[in-house]
Predict the 3D structure of the following.
Amino acid sequence: MKGRSALRDAAIAAIGLIIVLAIPFFHRSPAFEDFVIRLSAMALFATSLNLLVGNTGMVSFGHGMFYGLGAYAFGLTMQMTSLSLPVAAVLAVLLTTFAALCVGAVCVRLSTDYFAFITLAFQMLFFSVIISWQSLTGGDQGLRGGIPRREIFGFELASQLHLYQFCAVVAVLGLLALRHISASPFGQTLRMIRDNENRASFLGVVLWRARLWAFTIAGGFAGLGGVLAALFVSGAYPELADWPNSGQAIFAVMLGGIDTFLGPLLGAMILLALNDVVTRFTEYHGLVLGIVILVFALGLRRGVLDFLRLAWPGRSR
Amino acid sequence: MDLNALGACLTNPACVVTQTTSGLIVGMLLFLVAAGVTLIFGVLKIVNFAHGTFYMLGGYVAYTAFGVTDSYTLAVLSGALAMALFGALFERALISRVYGSNVLMQLLICYAVVLIFDDVVKIVWGPEFHAMGMPPAFQVPPLFIAGGVVPPFYAVLIGIAALIAIVLGLGLSMTRLGKTVRAAAINPQMVSALGINTTVLFAVVFAVGGGLAGLAGALAAPVRSLSPGMGFSILIESFIVTVIGGMGSIAGALVSALLIGMVRGFGTIGFPSFTDGLIYIVMIGILLLRPQGLFGRQT
Amino acid sequence: MRLEIKNLTKAFGGVRAIDDVSLDFASGSLSAVIGPNGAGKSTFFNLISGAFPADSGQVLLEGEDVGRLSRAERMHRGIGRAFQVASCFPTMTVAENLMAAVTAHAGRWGNLSHRFPPPGVRDRAEEVMSLAGLTHVADVEAAILSHGDQKLLDIAIALALEPKVLLLDEPTAGMGPDERWRMIDRVRGLWEQRKLTLIFIEHDMDIVFRVASTIRVLCYGRVLAEGVPDDIRNNQAVVDAYLGTEEHGA
C-alpha cells in the first residue's frame, strides 16, 4: 500500500484485464467464466470492506446490507423502468451510496464494539424488510421475473461471454478506483486513524468525517458488487444481504490479507474456489469450510499475502 | 401493521395475560442466553459468536436425553452440563489461542465452530425438524389467569429462569468466585497478579456461559422445534439484548431481555410480519440515545 | 510568539489540578517547567494545547485569547505539542509519519485527487526529518524505532505542523544519561533554528539548569517560583518542596 505509482497500478490492472479478456478466445469454459463473474462481484465486496476494516480499523459486521441493496436496487430498477442497463447500474450504486451515508451518519460516532453491532443491526433490519415487504421484493423467494437482459453498447448480456467481459471490466475499474482512494492522502489519513486516532485528531483530522466518507465509499463499491451479483443470478435474493454473506466477505479479507490491497481479491478467489470444490464432494460444506477456517485462523494466523510479504521483506508494499 | 388489533389486545385482560406470558418466555430464554454472552464479554472481552451453537446443542442433547430416559429433569440437566463442558473445552482448545488477537480472528473461530456444528447436528440428528413435545408431567390443563391462557410449563420455565437470575446475581455479588469474576472483568492483569489462576477462571466463565445457553436450549425444547441453524436467530437477539443492556452487565441483560420479550409478545399482534424489524429499530434507538447500553459503563 | 497564561484554573472533581496560574513566556524564549509529581505540569500543557477547556482564566497567544478554540484550531494558530509517551503512527515509516503530518497540516488530509504524498509535501517532510536528525531512519517503521528515535519522531511530527510555541512533555524521559544530553542538544538546536517559544517539562535538574533560560516551578497546581536558574537554585521554598540538596539529578 505504499510506494506504487499510479502508472504502475494502471499497468498491472491493464495487463490483468487483457489476460482475463483473452482467455475465452483460446478456451471456452462455462465453469471458469461463471467463476470469474462471481469473483468480480465478491472481489468488489471484499475489497470495499477492507477499506473499512484494514485501512481504517472500522470493523463492520453489516457490510452485506449494501451488497444486497445494490442488487435489489438494480434488479428493481431494471424491472420497473425501461432505463438502460448502465443507467440502472449507476442509479443503484448512487442509491446504495446514499444509504451508506445515512447509515454511516448514525453509526460512525460509536465506539468500536458498538459500531460493529449497530452495523449488524442495520443489516438484519434491512434483511427483515426485504423478507417482509413481499409485494416489492418477493420476500424470501427473491426478486421474481428476472432481469430483462438488454443490450448495452452492442453487448448482449444474455450471452455469458459478454457478461463475463462486462463483469471483468467493471471489477478491474472498480478495484483500480479503490486502489486510487487507498493510495491517496485520504487513504493515508484512514491509516493514521487506524494507527493512532488521538494523534490524527491532534493533527487536525476530523475523525468522524473521515470515517463517514470511508463508510460511504465502501458502501457504494459494495453496491457495485451487488449489481454484478444481480446480473449473475438474474435477479436478487435475500441471501445476498444475509449475515453469512457478510461473514464470507470478512473471511475473504482475513484469508487473503488485511494489510495488502489485493489481499481481499485473493481471499475471495480462494473462498469461491473452495466452496465450489467442496460442494461437489459433499453436502456438508459448512463442516469442511469451518475446519479450513480453523486451520487458517490457528495455523497461518494471517492472510496469505500478508504472510508472503513478511516472509519476503524488501518488496514495496 | 395492525394497530387496531394491538389496541384491542391491550384493553383485553385475557389477551394481555397471554401475550405477557408469551413475552416472558421469550424474555427469560433470551436472558439465559444473553447472560452468558455478557458474562463472557465482561470478563474475557470476547464476543462469543458461537453462543447460539451452545443453545442449539443444549436443545438437541436434551431431546436425546429425554428420548432415552423419559425424564425431563434429566434432559434439562444433561443439556446444561453438556454445554458447560463444551464451553470449557471450546475455551481451552480454541478461544484461548486468540486472546488479544484481532477481533475478526476471534469472530472467525466462532463462526467456524458454528459452521461445523450446524453440519454435525445435520449428520447426527438429520436435517429435518425435531420436536420434543411437551413432557407428560406438563400435559395438564392450562391455568386461566384473568381469562388468559397460561400453560403450566410456561409458568415453570419462567420460574426456573427467574430463580437462575437470582442465583446468578447473588453468586456474583456474594461468593468468592463471583467477586473474582467481577474483579477479572475490571482488571484481568491484577487478578492474575494476585495469584488467581486465570486459566481456570476463564474456562469456568465459558463453562457457566455455555451451561446457561445449553439450559435455555433444553428449557425451550418442549415449545420450540429443533433444527440445524436454529442458533443463529437467538444469537443475534442475544447480542441485541446484551448491547442494549450494556456489555458486561447481568442486570442489564435481564432488563433488556424482558424488554425485547415484551416487544415480541405484543409486537406480533401489532406488527405481525415486521416483528424482527421492530426489535432492530428498538436497538438502534437505544444505542443512539445511550451508546453504552442501559446499564453499561461509559468507556 | 508570546504566550501569556492568566489566572488559569482547572479542577477535576474537587481537586484543583491547576490553581490560579499566571505565567508569561516571552517570544523565542526557552523555558523549563519543573515540579514534583502531581504538580499539574501535564495538565498545564493540556490546557494550553486545548485537550480540555479550563474552568477559568485565559490562554493568550500574541495577545489573542485561544481559550475557546479547539485543539485543531490552536494547532493552526501555532501551538504544537509533543507527548511524554511518544505518540506516532506505528505501521508507517518515519518518512510517511512526517509526510502524513505535513499533509494534515496543509488541510489536505481528505484529498482524493492525488496519490499520497501530494506535491510539495515530501520536501517539507524531509526538511523536518533532517532538522530532527531522523534522516538515517527515514524508511524504518515507527514501531521498531529505538525509544529515543520514537521520541524524536514525536517531536518531529509536532514540528511538521510549523508551531510557533512548542510544548515538550519530558523529552528525555526513559533515556540514559548520554542519550539525554544528545536529545536536549537537538532540542536546543531546533529552538535556535526555528525561533520557537519552547517550553519543556523536565525532571533531570542538571539539564534544566544548564539549558533553560527561565525556569517555572509548579507545586500543587500553583506557581511556586519563577526566574533564571540561579534564582531558582537559591530559592528556599523550591529547595524545600522539590530540590532537596544542591547536588541533584533526576
